[in-house]
Amino acid sequence: MSFFSLGRNKDTASPAFRPDTYAPQSLQTQQPQPQSPPSRSLNQQFADQKRDQKRSSSFRRRLSKPQRLLTGTRGGPLPVVRKGNNNNNNNIDLGTAFSTSPLAMTFGADTSNPASSRLEAAAAAGALAGANTAAAVAEYTSPASSQHQQQGSTLAAAAGTPANSPLAPEVLAARVAERMKTYDAKRINTVKTEAAMAFDYDCIENATDAEKLANQVLLRLKKQDEIAVFQKAGMRTGFGNQKHKAFAGDHFLTNVSLLEDTHVLRAARRAPKGAHLHIHYNACLKPRVLLDLAEKMDRMFITSDLPLVFVGTDDSRTQNFYLCEIQFQITSVQDEKPGNLFDPGYSDRKHMQFREFLRQFPQKEMGMAAMDWLESKLVFSEKETYDIPQTSNGAWERFNGRTRMMKGLFNYETVYRKYTELFLQDLLNDNIQYAEIRPNFMTTNQLWNDDGTAKLDNAGIVKLIIGACEAFKKAHKGVRNFDGIKIIYCTPRSFPNDKVKAALDECILFKQTWPEYIAGFDLVGQESMGKPLRQFVPEFIAFQEECAQLGIKIPFLFHCGETLDMGTDVDGNLIDALLLNSKRIGHGFALPRHPHILQEMKRKNVCVEVCPISNEILGLTPRIGGHAVYSLLAQNVPCTINSDNGTLFQSSLSHDFYQVLVGKSDMGLFGWRQLAEWSLIHSCFSSDSAMADARVRWLEEWRDYVVWLLTTYDAENPETQRVLAEIAQDRRLAARASKL
Ligand SMILES: [Zn+2]
To answer: Annotated region Disordered: where (predicted)?
Structure first.
């Protein structure tokens, strides 16, 4: 076997190293192509392909994806660039970039497979994924099908049966058998066509031997978790004492403690997830982190809108503790209005020192410590989220109260710096390579100094984040694969036009001051309560004109369509996000219900920042299985997975990766790979080369991850042992070659 073919399919090993062959297919974003005539050089072929592609691109655009597949246009002689990956950032020669890495050869994609039919290849890939596809193909190519064929010979006997008379049983059987032949063939074709349209098709088709085995491992782990964790958890009692089995795709907050015992969550944590593109900066660490830091502050005070007293003697006696909205505030000596939250006459959000509050909290009567109670006030619980009368608006009400509670825990200098440092560490711990964070900028949200006597303005906040990030990157240089963070300038959608205009102006100023750190612009807050995007269209267009004049790029990255409603301003935001050329959209839950906007966004390569757990908890779907992401993926819309406000949802990005995997039975390793790759492709990297570099490093991590899955969960399998031995040998040789 050739040294360079290690880790690839045995029967397609290439006799010599070719950079174009060994570049990973999904990085190239091209479909496999048949062998070209040997007389033409690679450069000549490439020039021909570009010319032909230009000629036929308008024709291909007019065809639907299935049509392209069936006419061979997609997989014909031209290297058709996949629509979903075809953005400016992506038209870079990653093949060349990648081929410079010695390890490129270990997991190189097989582009030399001259499959006679792309559809056959798709079905084969589907079978390797262990998917339902495979089962369906097997069912209809089984010996039982050949029985239909044998019976078909008796059909001729039916030819003489008069019209309107009942068919003899053997004639009917013969006719059924004859039609079953056609039916079987059509069904196989349907399965193959659908498999070829799958969002993870490219990853499946170009999988290495190691990835195929690792995918089987991941699908097996899903099943093992069902038995070892969910079945073991026993039955849950529902309405009228009905019993319900626990299962992986059930309510996230119902399962969240069980997930810690699952292999799939462990695998999700270890997976290199690429970029995290939708994360609100005030709610991304565990709530206890901020509470513990607040306890250390001399000038940290707590307030409430209700006195914390017990009412009556029945079950509702603790209702004030549930209904109250707690807030925190760093307060100067001059501004302090002393009060005691446990006094029945307490009112007007008077200040109680936080440490004193912790001392006086009625731990015995509440059955929990003060910190535990405060933590419970910050995060969504199972009961309040899934209780039958709960609504999306009700969940948002709780969400907004929690956001206000977080605000005071977060907006002072010491904690902001510490929080940034911990957040960056958290990215590394969760195997996230890069993030675009969404801090909320407004004049009332400025940072206090630690004694509450002065404030840092928005520029001061950006400087603080950048300073912490630079220090962190320096401290971790060469240790981990990390591209740092960028800032998406966000301001509330509830603001009037002049304030949004001021925010847009400040965003331009920040971009000019820190071009490497400003990723884009967005409006935040509950969409149905704020103003629609179309209210700010003149300001947005003026912003675009000004950016063009100044020669700077600040893409819109709008939240939009985070709703179940149709015909409202909220799903109407999708229209404006499209027309304003939003580079990505946040949530886009309503997008599958707007077929024209969906197709247009797909054509413009707009990526959807999907937030599975957030959408479930805020009432858009009762369980992950009903999430809009699967409709988007079924239509091959580029998506990324995100945590949104993990603090409040008891989640991390790994939890969201877990959810999206268990919500679709046949989704495995290739789904995760495509989602992670899309996250980097649709990031706001400063240059094409920066993105290419990040993607090459991501791929190296991905290879390590595949090896980890195999060594951790499949080491006994002789086939795995063979593949791992080949990879190890390949790496030894590559390391030796790099020293020459
Ligand atoms: Zn959001």
So the answer is: 1-94, 142-163
